[in-house]
Specification:
399 residues; mainly beta; Immunoglobulin-like; five-stranded mixed sheet; 8% helix; globular
Length: 399
């Protein structure tokens, strides 16, 4: 009997040693992080790791910190990798070979620099039933069906439904659309059921939309002959109608070359939006804009075509130079906003990102302080204007 018990004990010990040995031969990344990352996701199903870094990150000199399965080693090519070793991700994904004794496994690590795009949609005109969800999907996730894949369920807030999505910087034009419920059945009918468009550049952006928005179309035309465009240059139009998104980002609009120096764009705008301001820019930044000053239009309930085309003006006026000196503090604001260097400025306008004017102040001094305690939390535009029609817009955040 003792011999039988001894045999059972030996067998159990051998089984335990076998299981322990199998565990030691795992070839997994237990953790993988890079300093200042937005997120890091390990997916064992396909042996992949995805890391999102803030826009502007130098992908050529990243330093991953990682841990591996007990006894495992990691290699890139023939070079062993240890936690804290510099890795170059600038050419794309990097393959690690994780080896544990006689077992090996290939892991693919992808790192992208990404901007944060915040979607905000006003659903007051929607027929939402209790328990209904709101989703956003689009070309940024391969048009995953709402409620599946990388489609994004939005969160209800006092300002509307909100979702934050990270997208590769400088991804260019992105199409998107809102849906009620996890299907294609109940989508936003913006501009006759067309998809909304945005530009993903190198900075974070907030998009402010209205569910089933009634729109008119504004056709912008600009004769950019004086812009001295060279091969590869493009023209954008931006303004108060898109919250003064930086050219090449957000809902700023990439124009099409219509020939003979004229660039054109058809832009849907909220019906009866009222007065808007706009300006043309060469390429994706604030650096090289039409120097004639901001132009204005009144948006009612009919389509508008700018004909004859606006003329691009390269000369910089003294008034515009003065506007460049205007500054504001604090930002974010709480109960008051101070604006300085207002020499030559005649008016200050505070508006929402969709162009609704909330406050207008006449200026007769070099500095003014505005009471902002009645403003709700959110993002606003502060526009300073001079008597010559020039203006400058600055975004401020109310906490």
């Amino acid at each position: 009997m003792r011999k039988i018990y001894s045999t059972i004990i030996i067998a159990l010990f051998s089984l335990s040693a076998f299981v322990s040995g199998a565990a030691e031969l795992e070839t997994k990344f237990i953790s993988y992080e890079i300093s200042e990352q937005v997120s890091s996701t390990i997916t064992e199903a396909d042996s992949s790791i995805s890391v999102i870094m803030p826009a502007g990150t130098d992908l050529a000199a990243l330093v991953p910190d990682f841990t591996l399965s007990n006894g495992a080693k990691a290699f890139i090519g023939e070079t062993e990798q240890v936690s804290g070793t510099v890795v170059d991700f600038s050419a794309g994904a990097v393959e690690y070979k994780v080896v544990n004794d006689t077992v090996e496994q290939v892991w693919t690590v992808s790192v992208i620099a990404a901007v944060k795009v915040t979607f905000l949609v006003d659903m007051n005109s929607a027929e939402l039933a209790e328990g209904d969800d709101v989703w956003v999907t689009g070309s940024f996730n391969g048009w995953n069906q709402p409620g599946t894949g990388a489609s994004v369920m939005m969160t209800k807030t006092d300002s509307g439904y909100v979702a934050m999505v990270y997208m590769p910087e400088n991804a260019g034009e992105i199409a998107y659309k809102y849906f009620i419920g996890a299907s294609w059945d109940n989508g936003d009918t913006y501009n006759g059921s067309e998809n909304r468009l945005m530009q993903v550049g190198a900075e974070d952006n907030m998009l402010v939309d209205i569910w089933n928005e009634e729109v008119v179309t504004v056709t912008f035309n600009v004769d950019a002959t004086e812009a001295e465009l060279v091969e590869g240059d493009v023209v954008y139009v931006t303004g108060s109608f898109v919250g003064w998104n930086t050219p090449g980002t957000g809902k700023s609009v990439l124009m099409s070359d219509a020939g003979d120096g004229v660039w054109t764009a058809n832009v849907p705008m909220t019906k009866n939006l009222g007065e808007i301001e706009y300006k043309y820019f060469k390429n994706a930044s604030w650096d090289d804009g039409d120097k004639v000053g901001n132009k204005s239009l009144t948006i009612a309930d009919e389509n508008i075509t700018i004909d004859p085309a606006d003329l691009w003006k390269p000369a910089v006026s003294v008034e515009e130079n003065k506007l460049d000196q205007v500054s504001m503090y604090p930002n974010p604001i709480t109960n008051k906003l101070t604006i300085t260097n207002l020499d030559g400025v005649s008016e200050v306008v505070i508006s929402s990102l969709v162009g609704q004017i909330l406050d207008v102040k006449s200026v007769d001094a070099s500095e003014v302080t505005i009471n902002t305690s009645d403003l709700k939390s959110g993002i606003y535009l502060v526009v300073v204007k001079d008597n010559a029609g020039n203006s400058k817009a600055i975004r401020v955040v109310k906490q």
